[in-house]
Design a protein that fits this description.
The chain is of the alpha+beta class. The chain has two domains: about 5-130, Creatine Amidinohydrolase, Chain A, domain 1; about 130-360, Creatine Amidinohydrolase (Alpha-Beta Complex), CATH 3.90.230.10. Helices cover about 30% and strands about 20% of the residues. The strands form six sheets. Strands 4-3-2-1-5-6 form a six-stranded mixed beta sheet. Strands 8-9-12-20 form a four-stranded mixed beta sheet. Strands 7-10-11 form a three-stranded antiparallel beta sheet. β18 (about 335-340) and β19 form a beta hairpin.
Length: about 375
């Protein structure tokens, strides 16, 4: 059913940006507004939104809707021109916002039909509205975070069971199903030693050995919302060098979290974590951004990087996940938590321990 509060926020931003009408085609954004998953494949699916309230969902007959979605439906079949049907609703003399991922074959046809005086990226508006989670979304994301904490707790003992990275990956999938996740938010990263020290590593048949660091980056989908967590653990023992790297990454993680509050910039969070790692002499080995936004998808618009100077607002959810990767030494450490921005700071959604390195005893 159409969520009027979310639609009102989108319409308000459309008015602010002088965008009188918009075509939303991303199934995730349509779910965000209608609460219904419709996966159209190669067929056109389009939610037309007009600031005057003239909204329509144009959908193929292969996807009949049995409940009231709160918006008028217009069906087409495979022998009809779907874009021509959509064009009948579009005000020809006004600008149209279109989804950034809308296939060119649909957009070009709409332009050919003269539907709209100009075309612009409408996803900017929807993405920004989706960034700010309401109370219900916050509650679900907290639940999702606690569930992935549980998976992490059950997965860690398996790093000393002699499994390959692929087998450990499969074990993670099994545990996610066990705790009730409906699916994964991304393919797990389960990497031993040099695998964890290579940010571009592809899970393979390597096995862990005594003294390895193990990077575990995992996430699941709970009631349509993603979770994400990374912990680095150690097989059997931890060397002084590994402990040094771990403590630097931990402090960088904490400093990033401390900077995550309303009024600061997203780049401030990255800078807080990155500057500390650089100060300690490992800046060149922190080779990725500090985080990403998260919600209905694991990676949403709004990254935590030096390039993003947008002001942090209450309701945002994003990760803080600094890392150091010393491939030649076979040491990779990353620590990741998901944050929800409150009125005066943030709530760290993940509660799994990180203060002390976890050394998993090797079974005799």
């Amino acid at each position: 059913m159409l969520d009027n509060s979310k639609l009102e926020r989108i319409v308000a931003k459309m008015k602010e940006q002088d965008m009188p009408q918009m075509i939303i085609s991303d199934p995730v954004s349509i779910f965000y507004l209608l609460g219904k998953w419709i996966i159209p494949g190669e067929r056109m699916l389009a939610l037309y939104v007009n600031v005057n309230g003239d909204n329509h969902l144009v959908i193929n007959k292969l996807f009949p809707q049995t409940e009231d979605l709160g918006v008028p439906l217009t069906y087409y079949d495979d022998i009809e021109d779907a874009v021509e049907i959509l064009a009948k609703f579009v005000e020809k003399d006004k600008k149209v916002g279109v989804d950034k991922n809308w296939p060119a074959r649909f957009l070009l046809r709409l332009q050919e039909l003269g539907a709209g005086s100009a075309f612009t990226n409408g996803s900017v508006i929807v993405d920004k509205v989706r960034q700010i989670k309401d109370a219900g979304e916050y509650k679900t994301m907290k639940e999702s975070a606690l569930k992935i904490d549980q998976v992490m707790d059950e997965l860690i003992p398996w790093v000393v069971k002699g499994l390959t990275e692929k087998e450990l990956n499969a074990k993670c999938v099994e545990l996610c199903k066990k705790v009730g996740f409906q699916g994964l938010s991304f393919d797990p990263i389960t990497a031993y030693g040099k695998g964890g020290a290579d940010p571009h590593h592809i899970t393979d048949d390597s096995k862990g050995k005594f003294g390895d660091s193990v990077v575990l980056d995992i996430g699941g989908m709970w009631n349509n919302y993603a979770s994400d967590i990374t912990r680095t653990v150690f097989i059997g023992e931890i060397s002084d060098r590994q402990r040094e790297i771990y403590n630097i990454v931990l402090e960088a993680n904490k400093r990033g979290i401390a900077a995550a509050k309303p009024g600061n910039k997203m780049s401030d969070v990255d800078k807080a974590a990155r500057d500390y790692i650089t100060e300690k002499g490992f800046g060149e080995y922190f080779t990725h951004r500090t985080g990403h936004s998260i919600g209905l998808e694991d990676h949403e618009v709004g990254d935590v990087s030096l390039a993003n100077d947008e002001i942090i607002q209450p309701g945002q959810c994003f990760s803080v996940e600094p890392g150091i990767y010393l491939y030649d030494e076979g040491i990779g450490v990353r620590i990741e938590d998901i944050l929800y921005i409150t009125e005066d700071g943030c709530d760290v959604l993940n509660e799994y321990p990180k203060e002390e390195p976890i050394v998993v005893p090797v079974e005799k």
